[in-house]
Write a structure and sequence with these properties.
Blueprint: E1 3-6, E2 16-22, E3 29-30, E4 35-40, E5 45-49, E6 54-59, E7 65-69, E8 73-78, H1 84-87, H2 91-95, H3 141-150, H4 168-173, H5 180-183, H6 210-225, E9 228-236, H7 238-243, H8 245-251, H9 260-274, E10 280-282, E11 287-289, E12 295-297, E13 299-301, E14 304-306, E15 309-310, H10 318-333, E16 347-351, E17 370-384, E18 387-401, H11 407-422, H12 425-428
Parallel strand pairs: 12-16, 16-17
Antiparallel strand pairs: 1-8, 2-4, 2-7, 3-6, 4-5, 6-8, 9-18, 10-11, 12-15, 13-14, 17-18
Helix pairs in contact: 9-10, 9-11
Length: about 425
């Protein structure tokens, strides 16, 4: 029996993608776990793996096609013992041009054998069968290997592959643990903005990338649906700046160099553990409290922004945080992050101090309930020991989801964060 391969949802926010490159051709034999294509998502270029064995009977979407909706058939796989010619679409289907978002033929494509019309929204994933034989869970070999390495329980996941099989993309949804639940409970998307006619001046209309579309949608939803409360304080950086050269001298031979941002990541993580009321997510009719501080760190990349995660930052040394951040930021800019490396996180940190920005208010990244915005450190008059002196001050602004976090709890977190930064020995203890 032939199998319809569909555009997968490689991230929770993905609604469409670009089929960047096919790594197989019609007639090729593939096995479970083989990489079939490279797909550009809203965050990165990712590999699309086979979950069944067979031969590629027909490629339905040409490489380079963009705006391919999740759930759109992209290829036909002939099952074991099935003739390729029998599995291929009818001549009418073969004559149809590659699906494109702007062409109605995508919606008019012939339905799969067991389904109706191609849905306009991503279909709900089929619950993964708990067993193929005995108590064996239905999952691809690659998904099994990654799940074992990441300590993910496959029996608790829902599969999006053919027949409900668990594939690699499903593991990213479990990376944040309990966070995966509220992420799926997002309210209906905001209405599309009205079309804007360009002004009668020289201009260029640039098509939005998948990443930019996702950023626009998620930030709009965040500001419309989350009641933000902002708390700002000034922090004296002098002690931290004085301490930093000493550990750097000790780890220089390992090729690691601590940045101020590395130390702020650790400070935020420790503050979240000390004030657990802020290490939460709002889940509609429940409040989800996390026992670990996974810090999402904003990294600017070509075309947008991505937030790789330092998992369990409260327990990691500064050198470990620095090494991980260097690696994650480098691969983020190359579009090579895996979903579990940027999906999840319990809180975020955004630092614009390197651009000289003194103060800003960041938008919360749902389902998280807070984000810390860091401004530039600069010399300012400051009262120390009841005398006016010059100190290096940094403004930090916490944005909090007021549905989940009370102002007093947010203020406690800011106070603890300030104390940790101003007495930095606690960061290396």
């Amino acid at each position: 029996m032939s199998i319809e391969l569909k555009m997968p949802a490689l991230s929770p926010t993905m609604e469409e993608g670009t089929l960047a490159k096919w790594l197989v051709k019609e007639g090729d034999t593939v096995s479970s776990g083989d990489i079939l294509a490279e797909i550009e998502t809203d965050k990165a270029t990712m590999e699309f793996e086979a979950v069944d064995e067979g031969k590629i009977a027909k490629i339905l979407v040409a490489e380079g096609s963009d705006g391919v909706k999740v759930g759109t058939p992209i290829a036909i796989l002939a099952g074991e013992g099935e003739e390729v010619s029998a599995a291929a679409p009818t001549p009418k289907a073969e004559a149809a041009p590659p699906p494109k978002v702007e062409e109605p033929k995508v919606e008019a494509a012939p339905p799969a054998k067991g389904g109706g019309e191609t849905p306009t929204a991503p279909p709900a994933p089929v619950a993964a069968p708990k067993a193929e034989s005995g108590d064996r869970i239905k999952a691809s070999p690659l998904a099994r290997r990654l799940a074992e390495a990441q300590g993910i329980d496959l029996s608790k996941l829902t599969g999006s592959g053919p027949g409900g099989r668990i594939v690699r993309a499903d593991l990213g949804k479990a990376a944040g643990g309990a966070m995966a639940a509220p992420a799926t409970q997002a309210a209906a998307p905001a209405p599309a903005p009205a079309h804007v006619e360009p002004l009668d001046i020289p201009h260029e209309a640039v098509k939005l990338s998948n990443m930019r579309k996702t950023i626009a949608r998620r930030l709009t939803e965040s500001k419309q649906q989350i009641p933000h409360i902002y708390l700002t304080l000034d922090t004296n950086l002098d002690a931290l700046l004085k301490l930093r050269p000493e550990p750097n001298a000790g780890i220089e031979k390992r090729g690691v160099k601590l940045s101020v941002n590395d130390m702020l990541i650790k400070a935020l993580a420790l503050a979240l553990i000390e004030v657990p009321e802020c290490n939460v997510s709002f889940g509609g009719d429940q409040l989800i409290k996390y026992g670990r501080a996974d810090i999402s760190v904003a990294v600017s990349i070509p075309g947008g922004l991505i937030t790789p995660i330092i998992v369990g930052a409260e327990e990691k040394s500064l050198s470990k945080i620095s090494a991980e951040m260097t690696d994650l930021a480098g691969r983020a800019k190359e579009g090579k992050l895996q979903p579990h490396e940027y999906q999840g996180g319990t809180a975020s940190l955004s630092n614009m101090g390197m651009f000289g920005i003194k103060h800003f208010e960041a938008v919360i990244n749902p389902p998280q309930a807070m984000i810390m915005a860091i401004g530039a450190g600069e010399k300012r008059p400051y009262v120390i020991d009841e005398s006016l002196q010059i100190a290096t001050l940094m403004s930090a602004t916490g944005s909090f989801d007021h549905r989940a976090i009370d102002g007093a709890d947010g203020a406690r977190l800011m106070k603890v964060f300030k104390e940790l930064v101003e007495t930095p020995l606690g960061l290396v203890a």
